[in-house]
Structures are given as C-alpha cells and as structure tokens.
Specification:
This protein is α+β, with helices and mostly antiparallel strands. The protein has eleven helices and six strands.
C-alpha cells in the first residue's frame, strides 16, 4: 500500500514489559521535537499507553503494549515477546502544513526505530503499513495481530514438537523390534565347518606324522639297495620314488615280495618247461 494516506508501522518486540522505558521515550521524543526551530508542533497524550506527536504535517505515534493477551499467547516459551513498542508515521490531519516529513515517513520511521534500538535493543522488529491515520483504534488492531501471530507461533512449534516426538517413538519401536529378532536366533554352527576342518587337516598336516621314523627309513633304503643289486630297474624305480616322493615302506615290501616270487618261479621246473616253448 503506497498512497498518500498510508501509515508506516514498526512494532519492536521485547521479552519484558517496557512501561518505564516507554515513558522515557515519550519524554525524549517530546524534547527533541520541541527543540526543532521553525516547526509547527503539538503533543497529545490521549491514553497512558499512547502518545501522539504532530510535527510539520507529519503524525508520529508512539504506543506501548503490555496486553495480557499478548503475554498469555507468549507464555509457552521463555523467549516469547511479552510487550511491544509501536512507532507509526503518517500524514497529519491539518491543512496547509509542510508535508516534507510525511512524504518521507518510511525513512523517518526507520530513523526513529534506529534511535530507539540504540537505547533499548528489541528482540525483533516487525514492519507493516496500514491505511489512514494511526490512532488508538489502529493500535488495538496491531495488538490483536501481534497476539494472533504469537498464538500461531507456539501452535506451530507444538505441532513440530509432537511430530518429532512421534518420529522418535517410531524409531525406538523399530530399534526394539530389530533387537528382538536378532536375539531370537540361536548360535548355530556353520554348515561347512566340518568340511573346512578336513580341508585344513589335509593342507596343514604335520609332516612328521606322515613320514616314518629313522629306523623305518633306514630299513626302507636298505631294502631299496637290495633290490638295486638284485633287480636293477625295480630297485632304481623304488629308490627314486622313495627319495623324491613319499617314503612308503609298504610299497617297497610288496615290491621285494613280488621280486622274490619272480626269482622262485624262474628257478622252478614249470618256468623251465614254459621257457622251452619260447
């Protein structure tokens, strides 16, 4: 809204009542406006919480709100605004007066807010515009709007808090259910454990257990040498096998037995009869 009758309104919000500070601001505003040379100035105080300064065609309103409704709406949180100082700048109602200040009402209002902030810093500043002159009735509308916004803010925060609490409860239930399922399963052995044990035993068997002891090894190689003397091919084959392969006493004994049987058969009459045919 940007027409000639628009009023610029600034609401400075505080956590504590500002009654004493409001009175000091009224005195400072009055003193500063009276000291301006060649100005048309009037100061009105229709209510204890409302002061009006008419200067050079501009109408400056300063009001204080410590409304119980605003305090009740702010009660849920310690950081809520419990009082407000309202500064409004608009055109004056007198005809024929300069309107330089009124035409620059937004800049004038911001300058006044900065001066108040320098002395009494506000927790928050809300800006708005309203049509027509700003009086006690418009001030009541501002108070009602502040109360409505204060009530909506706790309601929104309560809704967010309830949603967060519900989310945390749901997450706790999911975690509890997951823990129950995990603890219900017994500790079972792996199905391939026995197979793995057999594989490890085959791969990492004790070499001392597989090889014969010293007397057996001496007997083994003595038998190999005897076979080398008796039957060179058989003896060399067994000696090579035992030296580079697995030392097998039973294999050597079998070979020696078969060699002896062969020698016995070769000297028998049956062998000579069979040999006569070849």
């Amino acid at each position: 809204m940007h027409h000639a009758s628009a009023t610029v309104v600034a609401a400075l919000l505080y956590r504590e009542p500002m009654v004493g500070e409001f009175e000091r601001l009224v005195e400072q505003f009055d003193r500063a406006f009276r000291d301006r040379p060649r100005t048309d100035y009037r100061h009105l105080r229709p209510y204890d919480d409302f002061a009006l300064f008419a200067i050079d065609g501009a109408r400056i309103s300063l009001a204080h709100c410590a409304d119980p409704m605003l305090q009740a709406a702010a009660a849920p949180g310690p950081d809520r605004a419990r009082s407000a100082l309202v500064i409004a700048v608009s055109f004056g109602i007198a005809e024929g007066l300069p309107v330089v200040l009124a035409e620059r009402r937004e800049a004038l209002c911001r300058s006044l807010v900065e001066k108040v902030q320098a002395v009494f810093p506000a927790d928050e500043v809300l800006w708005s515009e309203t049509g027509g002159a700003f009086g006690p009735d418009e001030f009541d509308d501002v108070v009602r709007e502040l109360c409505r916004e204060a009530q909506e803010a706790p309601a929104a925060e309560d809704a967010i808090a309830r949603a967060e609490a519900a989310r945390q409860r749901a997450a706790a239930r999911r975690n509890a259910a997951a823990q129950v399922v995990a603890n219900d399963l017994p500790d079972l052995p792996h199905p391939m454990r026995d197979e793995a044990a057999r594989i490890r035993q085959a791969l990492y068997a004790d070499p001392a257990a597989a090889n014969p002891n010293l007397p057996q090894r001496l007997t083994l190689y003595a038998m190999d040498m005897a076979l080398v003397v008796a039957v060179l091919p058989v003896g060399l084959a067994l000696l090579t096998y035992n030296a580079f392969g697995k030392e097998d006493l039973r294999l050597t004994a079998r070979a020696m037995s078969l060699t002896g049987i062969g020698f016995a058969f070769a000297g028998s009459p049956l062998a000579q009869t069979v040999g006569a045919y070849f």
